[in-house]
Specification:
By secondary structure, the protein is of the alpha+beta class. 58% of the residues lie in helices and 14% in strands. A four-stranded antiparallel beta sheet has the order 1-2-3-4.
């Protein structure tokens, strides 16, 4: 064997040794992340959710108009998709056709029709409505717009009041996702506290907590929300209704996770390391937080991620039937509430675009939950 071959083998062995050392010395979170990265579908779903979250966070910058801004010259207008070519030739810059108003000879309604002889070019980082990004950064610069300040671009059309569907969907994305996140966090904290106490204490404490949990679980959701919606004062601002909706979803979403945490704690409360910590004088809070919960952290993470789509669907469904958020607040459910008529299906089907966001968000959370489940299980290989 030549010296060059021996050196190559030695370097290869050293590289493999370093990789094994890196693997065996890695923390549990690092190992979960490495396995999660191998789940391609979950990574794609994570990117999609990340993009949706960014669109919602920076809605004031991404959306060309406010959620209540009206274009009275383009009511129930069809989506205006930028193009590069028309019957007059092609252009290196995207453009849309201008709009002219005519009267329908049958219904006598004023309708907006494209004017193929007029081009209005699409530009990026244009000046528009003054707003505050993130609620405190004043600006009048928007991601895209038109070269003509008097013209308006409606990528996904407008509704029956002339409000831009694209802009309203961006604001609705922030509202629905934030309700899901805050609601899940509230229910998660309650589940950890209540389930942790029940599982660690046992006995009479556990029995009392379980009876309360069962009462909360059997409360009929729809009648409950009907009563709460009727009890909400009419003079409440949209912000107050938003926080009330989030708090209600969180307060009634903890029983399932709490019972799972309780069952896990009951199964390990007699383990040697728990008994040793108790004999060493550790407080119950430290035993639960430092010794018992970390033993099934991966399970808690998976359950937490899977809870997001249920929270989002709850808000969407309640707002859709008029029991949740109400205008002028915009959420996916509020937007879909406007699309529950046969006329919309026939004349303005683009009002169903927010439904695609609901479907994509729920599927993405579900796929991420599957990826985390595989990554957290050391005996499962991520596909």
């Amino acid at each position: 064997m030549s010296d060059a071959t021996a050196n190559a083998l030695s370097k290869q062995e050293e590289k493999e040794r370093q990789q094994r050392l890196k693997y065996y010395s890695a923390s549990q979170w690092t190992l979960i992340w490495w396995r999660f990265r191998r789940h391609k579908a979950a990574m794609v779903a994570g990117v999609i959710l990340g993009v949706m979250a960014l669109l919602g966070i920076f809605a004031e910058f991404v959306a060309p108009y406010g959620p209540t801004t009206r274009d009275t010259q383009y009511i129930d207008g069809a989506p205006q998709m930028p193009k590069f070519c028309d019957q007059n030739g092609c252009s290196a810059r995207p453009f849309i056709h201008g709009v002219s108003t005519k009267r329908d000879p049958v219904t006598l309604r004023a309708i907006s029709v494209p004017d193929p002889e007029k081009r209005v070019y699409v530009e990026f980082f244009v000046q528009g409505e003054r707003t505050k990004v993130l609620g405190f950064i004043p600006t009048n610069i928007h991601l895209f717009g038109l070269s003509d300040p008097d013209a308006k671009l409606h990528l996904w059309g407008t509704d029956d009041l002339g409000r831009d569907v694209f802009s309203r969907t961006m604001y609705a994305t922030r509202t629905s996702l934030s309700i899901g996140v805050i609601g899940v966090l509230i229910s998660f904290v309650l589940a950890l506290a209540i389930g942790g106490v029940a599982g660690y204490a046992g006995g009479m404490t556990d029995n009392v907590i379980q009876r309360v949990t069962e009462v909360v679980r059997v409360v009929p959701i729809i009648p409950l929300y009907m009563g709460l919606a009727a009890a909400m004062p009419k003079e409440w601002s949209t912000t107050q209704v938003y926080f009330a909706m989030t708090l209600i979803l969180g307060l009634f979403g903890w029983p399932t996770l709490a019972r799972r945490i309780r069952s896990q704690l009951l199964s390990i409360r007699g383990e040697d390391y728990v008994v040793a910590a108790r004999l060493a004088g550790a407080r119950p809070g430290r035993i639960i937080g430092q010794h018992m919960l970390p033993s099934f952290t991966s399970f808690i993470i998976v359950d937490l991620v899977i809870s997001f789509p249920y929270m989002i669907l709850s808000e969407t469904a309640l707002s859709f039937v008029g029991l949740g958020l109400r205008p002028p607040t915009v959420s996916w459910g509020v937007l879909l509430q406007q699309a529950q008529s046969v006329r919309v299906i026939e004349q303005t089907p683009w009002l169903f675009i927010p439904a695609l966001f609901v479907v994509v968000a729920v599927l993405a959370f579900t796929v991420i939950g599957d990826g985390l489940r595989d990554a957290a299980d050391p005996y499962s290989e991520a596909k």
